[in-house]
Write a structure and sequence with these properties.
about 100 residues; alpha+beta; 3-stranded antiparallel β-sheet; 3 helices; signal; chemokine activity; C-C motif chemokine 27-like; cytokine; Interleukin_8-like_sf
């Protein structure tokens, strides 16, 4: 007795569709940046003054979601710096000074 397994064209088509869907799902998962957050894992209190002057945007990373630590994420010319949350006070002082100088001119 010998058994042969032949797949019908409909089953072959279903199998191809399933493989294609799995491939597309895997591709979407690996290329989506929004799916996996980029968290700071360490912070620094020693952010140079010249970097703080160039900060374009700052946001707080909280440890109550996907990330494990609180951090101040500083965006400077396409780069991110992970600062200790206390650096926010120094950044605000510098921004106030900068704003005050701009108003005088």
């Amino acid at each position: 007795m010998s058994f042969t397994c032949s797949l019908t064209p409909a089953v072959t088509m279903d199998l191809r569709v399933m493989v294609m869907l799995l491939f597309l799902c895997a591709l979407a998962i690996t290329t989506t940046e929004g799916g996996i957050p980029k968290c700071c894992v360490t912070t620094s209190m020693d952010i140079p003054t010249n970097v703080l002057r160039k900060v374009e945007r700052a946001e707080m990373q909280r440890n109550n979601g996907a990330c494990e630590i609180n951090a101040l994420v500083l965006h400077v010319k396409g780069k991110k710096f992970c600062a200790h949350p206390k650096v926010k006070r120094k950044l605000k002082r510098m921004q106030r000074k900068k704003d005050g100088k701009q108003k005088r001119h």
